[in-house]
């Protein structure tokens, strides 16, 4: 369609600002702001269609409509694959197929063209804080106060820079203690505990001395804990995107359709939700949004159900969001704004590409550390095999030796170890006894080193690997903001060239540009904080790992020197005691370092170091082009529970229901 076309409005008010219209015999969706009524209208007769219960709108005295509406044309607008998020992201990298730009859908275009339909004169700026939702019924005065606080929370201020002016200090959020619950209506679901930690400002945290002259401890942070399920997070994210259309909000983790109650998935989901909330409250203006306050502060289940419909019914802010943005006059230069967005866009794409490479390399580092731990363990077993003359398991060693074989083996071992357990053919050889004990301590130290390396790869590095998701795909996150910025610049330059002066429309363009450039500044600040934190976390983890390794190796080394060496003699410490790892030697696979489960169970050996579970990878980012754990993986695990799929031997394997049949 183009300007001046006549259209027939079939349904004026649809969600998210759309209207259903008829143009030349085709019905489709267009933004409600794209058309205006040029004559008086009245409600026409109801359509004779089972699928439509709404009335049409047409001119007075028009011919009554008695036919069914034209078929909907496939315009390919909006998200066409709600039920296939992984499929969409696999093919498109998470990109939206909405053919209308964010400049239109956010309300920025309507604001630039027409301003706000409501009066933008608001209350004087105050700074409301996060507070606990009232659990008792308030009177009318309380409702008025709450309404004023809500109005004040929707005012956003820009300082010179441009940069957002925060009203509240940052605070921390913990998502913890997930628990499984059941409902007759919705079935089973997982509930997470969300704790908000509000620390006092620095000037209030100054240590004061009491009467005895001792400094008083710093005050404990205030805590508010609530319980929320994933559908509540969906509500929060939906409400934020509708009420704050001009800012870049982090994406919400995807809904899981299979395997959502497994321990690994619940922990991954808990971490993703915690990172999501902390990124929301890090934003200078999102942290004091009314819906965020409600989500984090409403502790009463009754109050939650009472106020939830109000937040769900709030319409999209649209141009009203920009009407409530206040900034200094002449706060930006057009040439600078043009150059900044191009540089910002190129920078985001480079950061995204580099982070994707970094995530891949970090995954390789974790697997390499697991491999190193495996060989450290094999080296330890090899040392024990050497000093005890006990061979490691072979691929053919799958049955327990007979009594005759054991007796023959014991006879053939004569001279390999003396009666004190020393690695020597001589009896009462104190030097060899010391050497054997020192080498045994070395082998045990290497087992401890392997444990440290494996724990670092599984736990410490997993946290850093997960944190890299926070800084991944910045270009996709800020693409709507960049689109709005460029479109507004185009309108601004066009208005200046046409009128040669600054009028109300160009002033509204400046408001939008202040908003977008404040978002650029927010990313600049958060990028510095994020990469500094990730680098320090990695360095601290490496320092702690190597410090612990050095401590164990130094202790093993000391066994070869006085006075520890003298303490290993038979006179001071007696004969050699067998290492707890010696029982593993007949079951150690020299290729993989794993223990044979069958022989371990038959011989009563240790089973704690049986076949180790595979290294857990981080859950995929919402915008990853190739999902790291598709639904098919969860289905495969479900099959493994019944049939003992060899792909998951550590979880099911021989203990499955139909293991033998499989």
TrEMBL record:
SMART domains: PX. Coiled coil: none annotated. It comes from the Eukaryota. It holds the Pfam family BAR_3_WASP_bdg. GO terms for biological process: endocytosis; endosomal transport; plasma membrane tubulation. Residues 46-80, 198-223, 394-414, 569-615 are annotated as: Disordered. PROSITE patterns: PX (PS50195). GO terms for cellular component: cytoplasmic vesicle; plasma membrane. This is PX domain-containing protein. It comes from Serendipita vermifera MAFF 305830.
């Amino acid at each position: 369609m183009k300007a001046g076309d006549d259209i027939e409005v079939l349904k004026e008010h649809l969600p998210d600002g759309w209207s259903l219209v008829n143009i030349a015999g085709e019905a489709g969706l267009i933004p409600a702001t794209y058309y205006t009524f040029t004559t008086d209208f009245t409600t026409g007769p109801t359509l004779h269609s089972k699928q439509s219960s709404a009335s049409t709108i047409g001119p007075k005295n028009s011919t009554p409509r008695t036919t069914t509406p034209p078929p909907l044309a496939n315009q390919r607008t909006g998200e066409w694959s709600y039920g296939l998020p992984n499929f969409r992201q696999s093919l498109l990298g998470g990109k939206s197929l909405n053919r209308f730009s964010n400049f239109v859908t956010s309300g920025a275009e309507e604001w630039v063209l027409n301003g706000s339909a409501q009066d933008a004169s608001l209350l004087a700026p105050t700074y409301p804080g996060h507070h606990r939702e009232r659990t008792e019924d308030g009177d009318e005065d309380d409702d008025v106060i709450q309404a004023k606080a809500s109005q004040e929370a929707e005012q956003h201020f820009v300082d010179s820079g441009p940069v957002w002016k925060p009203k509240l200090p940052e605070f921390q959020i913990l998502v913890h203690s997930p628990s499984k619950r059941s409902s007759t209506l919705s079935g089973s679901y997982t509930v997470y505990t969300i704790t908000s930690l509000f620390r006092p400002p620095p000037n209030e945290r100054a240590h004061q001395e009491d009467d005895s002259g001792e400094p008083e401890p710093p005050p404990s942070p205030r805590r508010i804990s609530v319980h929320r399920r994933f559908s509540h997070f969906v509500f929060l994210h939906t409400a934020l995107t509708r009420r704050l259309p001009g800012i870049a909000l982090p994406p919400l983790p995807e809904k899981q359709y299979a395997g959502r109650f497994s321990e690994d998935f619940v922990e991954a989901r808990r971490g993703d939700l915690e990172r999501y909330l902390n990124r929301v409250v890090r934003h200078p203006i999102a942290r004091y949004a009314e819906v965020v306050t409600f989500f984090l502060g409403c502790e009463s289940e009754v109050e939650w159900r009472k106020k939830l419909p109000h937040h769900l019914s709030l319409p999209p802010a649209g141009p009203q969001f920009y009407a409530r943005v206040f900034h200094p006059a002449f706060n930006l230069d057009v040439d600078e704004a043009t150059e900044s967005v191009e540089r910002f866009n190129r920078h985001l794409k480079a950061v995204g590409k580099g982070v994707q490479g970094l995530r891949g390399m970090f995954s390789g580092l974790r697997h390499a550390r697991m491999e190193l731990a495996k060989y450290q363990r094999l080296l330890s077993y090899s040392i024990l095999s050497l000093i005890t003359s006990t061979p490691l398991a072979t691929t053919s060693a799958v049955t327990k030796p007979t009594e005759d074989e054991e007796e023959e083996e014991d006879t053939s071992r004569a001279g390999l170890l003396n009666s004190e357990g020393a690695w020597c053919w001589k009896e009462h050889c104190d030097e060899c006894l010391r050497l054997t004990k020192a080498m045994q301590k070395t082998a045990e130290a290497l087992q401890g080193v392997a444990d440290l390396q494996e724990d670092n790869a599984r736990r410490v590095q997993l946290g850093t690997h997960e944190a890299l998701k926070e800084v991944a795909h910045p270009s996709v996150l800020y693409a709507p903001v960049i689109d709005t910025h460029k479109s507004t610049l185009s309108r601004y330059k066009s208005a200046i060239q046409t009128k040669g002066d600054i009028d109300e429309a160009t002033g509204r363009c400046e408001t939008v540009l202040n908003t977008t450039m404040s978002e650029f500044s927010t990313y600049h600040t958060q990028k510095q904080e994020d990469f500094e934190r990730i680098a320090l976390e990695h360095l601290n983890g490496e320092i702690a790992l190597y410090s612990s390794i050095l401590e164990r190796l130094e202790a093993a080394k000391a066994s070869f020197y006085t006075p520890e060496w003298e303490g290993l003699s038979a006179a001071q410490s007696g004969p050699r005691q067998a290492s707890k790892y010696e029982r593993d030697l007949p079951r150690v696979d020299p290729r993989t370092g794993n223990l044979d489960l069958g022989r371990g169970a038959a011989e009563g050996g240790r089973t704690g170091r049986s076949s180790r579970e595979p290294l857990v990878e981080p859950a995929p980012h919402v915008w990853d082009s190739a999902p790291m754990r598709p639904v098919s993986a969860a289905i495969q695990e479900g099959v493994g529970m019944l049939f003992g799929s060899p792909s998951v031997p550590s979880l099911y394997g021989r203990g499955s229901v139909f293991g033998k049949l499989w």
